[in-house]
Amino acid sequence: MLDQFGHDAWWVVLLKVILIFAVCVVLTLFNIWWERRVVARMQHRIGPNVHGPFGLLQSLADGVKLALKEDLTPAKADTIVFITAPVLAVIPAFVTFSVIPFGPVVDFFGQRTPLQLTDLPVATLFVMAIASIGIYGIVLGGWASGSTYSLLGGLRSSAQMISYEVAMGLALVAVFVYAGSLSTSQIVAAQGNLWFGLVLMPSFLIYAISMVGETNRAPFDLPEAEGELVGGFHTEYSSLKFALFFLAEYVNMATVSALATTLFLGGWHVPLWIDHLWAGANRGYWPLLWFFGKLFGFIWVFIWLRGSLPRLRYDQFMKLGWKRLIPLALTWIVIVGVVRVVCVANDIDPRWIAVPAVVFTAVMVVALLRGAPAPQLPVAQPQGAFPTPAMPAGGAVRGAAAPLTFAPSTAPRSIEEAS
Predict the structure, then answer these.
(1) Measured distance CA(414)–CA(335) in Å, rounded
(2) Phi then psi for 103, rounded to 5 degrees?
(3) What per-residue confidence (pLDDT) applies to 415?
(4) Residue 112: enclosing H or E segment and its boundaries?
(5) Phi/psi at 110 (nearest 5 deg)?
């Protein structure tokens, strides 16, 4: 599969880069509109419906308005870092799409080329490495703003992304073991008969939870908690710099969804084994339809979670990442390794791993949904101890309060009396 890359003409590579950039921007505009429409329907509202057909141009109008707003830089901000941070956040979101396979080899303006910009023997590690650079943009943006709210939001984002990137990376190890490769195109090819989301269900579930935490989306949007941090790390940003942070968030949603589609849902392969009935389902440009259909399914889940679930407390959120997801991911990796060795040594169909996958998924769901122990209520303090005041004599006063009475004043009432 890797020998198909590196032979394209320069104009083919340039055209692929332009198309990927355009797809990411259009996806962002569409996802914003779609989120507003879906959440409005869930809340019995209408949503955007004025600008363009069905309100489709509302996102574009908002983007133009945001870019034309006054650009402010706080007096105490580190100007260079303050300007660089949004760029560091948005560029990795676009770069990760360079190794995502959108389809098979096609006829592209007379050239035979795969619907993928490039591929690497360690393409998945490349995605994880580039995605981790986006954390610097968020942390530096919060620190360089010179604001307490922004700093706290940046620290929360860094802790959140690091913890959930560990769980996300561990979830992908089982995919590497089962596919025998880290190349995205080879992982898609290995799912020609059975998707890894079925045989590696625990990894899929862990990745799905981790990608929501990785993108700072509800119910894991602690860095942008309005009631606590105003807007989080981008509180002091405005105009085009704020738009870049906004763009990075929505492109990251598409990136993690595209990666989940590639690693767990067969990539551009047609679902439900339709290719057994229609031989051309996985040829030509048809796979683009299957790929984006799966991607939009993940985007819909993002929107559904935002419109349905309340925000977690920060301690609950970090415990979920460090004390539940990471231990479960490590345990599942051991199970996958043992089953894989047994299957190879005894010439057993490796798809039998689906049996322990279902059992472990049930155990994992119980572990994740198990409620925390009830907090201990404070012990009642003796009467009169601080800060509880002593009860009045005869017990609590019932009915109307007694009228106020004042002692007669001895002060003079007029100037004449004073003289």
Answers:
(1) 95
(2) 180, 180
(3) 56
(4) strand 111-115
(5) 85, -5
Could you tell me the pTM of the whole model?
0.83
State which amino acid sits at residue 260: A
Write down the residue that tokens 């155990």 correspond to: 363
Q: What is the DSSP string of 222-258?
A: GGG-HHHHTTGGGTT--HHHHHHHHHHHHHHHHHHHH
Within 8 A by CB and 6+ apart from 291, the residues are 102, 103, 258, 261, 267, 268
108 membership: H or E segment, kind and range:
strand 103-108
Using the 8-state DSSP alphabet, how is residue 320 labeled? I
Owner of token pair 């935490």:
213
What's the token pair of residue 277?
A: 């009935």
Span 358-387, pLDDT tens digits: 888 888 888 877 755 655 655 555 555 566
- Give the pLDDT band of residue 419 (cuts 50, 70, 90): low
The C-alpha atoms of residue 178 and residue 171 are separated, in whole angstroms, by: 12
pLDDT at residue number 279: 80
Q: Specify which residues 115 forms β-bridges with.
A: 103
Enumerate long-range contacts of 157-161, CB under 8 Å, 24 or more apart.
Answer: 157/216, 157/223, 157/232, 157/233, 159/318, 160/213, 160/216, 160/220, 160/222, 160/223, 160/317, 160/318, 160/321, 161/132, 161/134, 161/135, 161/213, 161/214, 161/216
Helical spans, DSSP H, in 273-325 = 286-308, 314-319
Tell me the per-residue pLDDT of 381-409, one tens digit each, with 9 for 90 and over: 555 556 666 666 666 666 666 677 777 76
Q: What is the pLDDT of residues 56-72, one digit of tens each?
A: 999 999 888 888 888 88
Determine phi and psi for 112, rounding to 5 degrees: -85, 115
Task: Give the per-residue pLDDT at 372.
Answer: 55
Residue 8: φ, ψ to 5° = -75, 150
The Cα 127–Cα 98 span in angstroms is 9
CA distances from 282 to 28, 195, 265, 288, 292 (A): 27, 15, 14, 9, 14
Return the sign of the alpha-carbon dihedral for residues 380, 383, 384, 389. positive
